[in-house]
Write a structure and sequence with these properties.
Helix content is 76%, strand content 0%. It contains 29 helices and no strands. Helix 5 packs antiparallel against helix 6, helix 12 packs parallel to helix 27 and helix 14 packs parallel to helix 25.
Length: 560
């Protein structure tokens, strides 16, 4: 500011007259000028600050407008992005419409059969077949739970007058129902002890650090479990947590090829584990009940074991080889797994007296099953004895209340399936179907036992792809196969029914064909596409093995 006021005195100095005339003015003028200039500068600074504030305000306003515009765009697009969410109103409407469509298809199946076959079948057979097909549509499409669909059968058939109430409830009096109940009770007792984990850890300890050993161990575990845990779903539920711990140890994540291979090992291992052990698969139990009902014979635990054992023993390494080749990946030799399994076994401690008692009970049940031809007891009796002994005072290895906590839905499904099979037989539906399917081609195919076995295996695989559920596949194939075999004197009806029931277990291509497939798919580690390649080859393997058994083992046993 001083540089701005310095010229003023010099200017007054060149005008002496004016300065002399007004000495006070000369003295005060510089002060006034300086004050005036300072005030002007301050005003300019305020103006500049005001302009800066205005500019900032404009920028803030512009930003606010951009934010508002973005918000409006988001609001405009939000309904589109949330429309397909599972919980959205649109998704719910689509789901409801889809269910209505499935119900409509079920009703259509009933109408087509009931009115379309009016001239060819009597009332009882026609209604039974129409309701059966309508129910199969609901089981396949599943707009309601399987067990709810099963309950529909319990009142629709009696109301229609096609069958009596006693007949439709007869399936629940079958020993097969109580065999599954006893099997669930035994499985519950085993789950209350560390025996199942100890077995799995020990097998993985032996095989874990060998080439393909982890996959081999995963496949072998359910095979051993099948003897004392008669439920594929329970075996799968027990094995999955162990496999997850293995993947964690090996550093395998979801989406990795190695992870897919191990998870498919669970699917296939649990799927084939019911092959030779009669109570180990629901399909086996239904098949035996249908055989005993239609053919008036008695298939024992040992009969089934002898028939299926060679095929089971071949399927185990064949499944390992197919899975190992279907998911090729350069994987290092597993390190640390054996040590980890050793640690887990150590955490369980030495085999307790409780586990020893449990192993004794399980061994006794298996021995009694094998000696059915000697003592004459059906498999349900030893199973019930074993379940009781597990909680018996002085022997107790499990809590009785927990043993009794069995799932009711599978029992409803099984009871209705058995009753439906008997209804198809009693009303004559199977007789009508066999007559319609009788032709020169079918007579030729069923005239040669080995060729008939191959035909039934292929037919069952095709039907299984449509019916998906194992129980439904059995009820859709076994009665028809036995009826067709009745028209050819050279056809081994019992063997063909056995082949149809056994083939129903081998659903490898689609997720929904088996319970283990559905459970493993639900983990998110595998997709439907992961099933196609191994499933295709395993289907060919099982079909080829079935034909080979017909040419050799079953012929040597004298079944034809």
């Amino acid at each position: 500011m001083s540089t701005m006021t310095n010229p003023q005195p010099d200017e007054e100095a060149v005008r002496p007259e004016s300065a002399a005339a007004s000495p006070e003015s000369v003295a005060t003028k510089p002060e006034f000028a300086a004050t005036n200039l300072e005030s002007t500068a301050a005003s300019l600074e305020k103006t500049a600050a005001s302009l800066e504030k205005t500019e900032t305000s404009l920028e803030t306003t512009a930003t606010s407008l951009e934010t508002t515009e973005t918000s409006l765009e988001t609001t405009a697009t939000k309904p589109e992005s949330t429309a397909d969410r599972p919980g959205s109103a649109t998704a719910k409407r689509r789901k409801a419409l889809r269910k209505l469509l499935w119900f409509a298809l079920s009703v259509l199946a009933f109408v087509l059969v009931y009115f379309g076959l009016e001239a060819y079948m009597d009332y009882g057979a026609r209604v039974t077949l129409a309701i059966t097909l309508a129910v199969i549509v609901l089981w396949v499409l599943e707009p309601i739970p399987f067990s709810m669909t099963a309950v529909l059968v319990l009142f629709l058939l009696p109301i229609s007058g096609a069958v009596s109430t006693d007949l439709i409830l007869s399936g629940f009096a079958s020993p097969a129902i109580f065999l599954i109940v006893a099997g669930m009770m035994i499985a519950s007792g085993v789950e209350q002890t560390p025996l199942g984990k100890r077995l799995a850890y020990q097998l993985l300890y032996w095989f874990g650090e060998k080439k393909g050993g982890v996959l081999a161990g995963i496949i072998l575990v359910p095979q051993v479990m099948a003897f004392f845990i008669p439920a594929a779903a329970v075996r799968t539920a027990m094995l999955l947590p162990i496999v997850f711990s293995i993947t964690s140890i090996l550093g395998v994540k979801a989406g990795d090829v190695r992870g897919k291979k191990l998870m498919m090992g669970v699917v296939i291992g649990c799927g084939i584990s019911g092959t030779a052990v009669l109570p180990a698969a629901l399909g086996n139990v239904i098949t035996v009940d249908l055989i005993n009902t239609y053919l008036q014979t008695h298939v024992t635990y040992t009969d089934w074991l002898v028939l299926a054992l060679p095929m089971w023993l071949i399927m185990i390494p064949a499944s390992w080889w197919v899975l190992y080749r279907s998911f090729p990946v350069k994987e290092p030799m597993p390190s640390g797994l054996k040590e980890k399994m050793k640690e887990l076994i150590a955490e369980l401690g030495p085999v307790s007296s409780r586990e020893k008692r449990l192993m004794g009970i399980l061994a006794g049940v298996c021995v009694l099953w094998a000696l059915e031809g000697v003592h004459g007891w059906p498999p349900v009796i030893p199973a019930l004895i074993g379940a009781v002994l597990m909680a018996w005072p002085g022997i107790k290895v499990a809590d009785w209340e927990k043993i009794l906590d069995v799932k009711f839905a599978p029992l409803v499904m099984l009871g209705v399936t058995l009753s439906l099979g008997r209804a198809l037989y009693e009303t004559g539906v199977t007789g009508y179907l066999s007559k319609w399917m009788e032709s020169d081609l079918t007579l030729y195919l069923f005239s040669n036992p080995a060729l008939a076995v191959l035909t039934v295996a292929v037919l069952t695989q095709l039907i299984h792809k449509v019916t998906s559920n194992v129980s439904t596949a059995v009820i859709a194939t076994v009665p028809v196969v036995m009826a067709l075999a009745a028209h050819s004197p050279d056809s081994p009806a019992l063997l063909l029914a056995f082949v149809a029931g056994l083939t129903s277990l081998y659903g490898f291509i689609l997720v929904v064909e088996t319970i283990p497939g559905v459970m493993v798919h639900g983990t998110g580690w595998v997709t439907q596409q992961d099933f196609f390649v191994p499933g295709f080859w395993l289907t060919l393997v099982t079909t080829g093995l079935t034909f080979l058994m017909a040419l050799t083992w079953w012929k040597w046993l004298g079944y034809y």
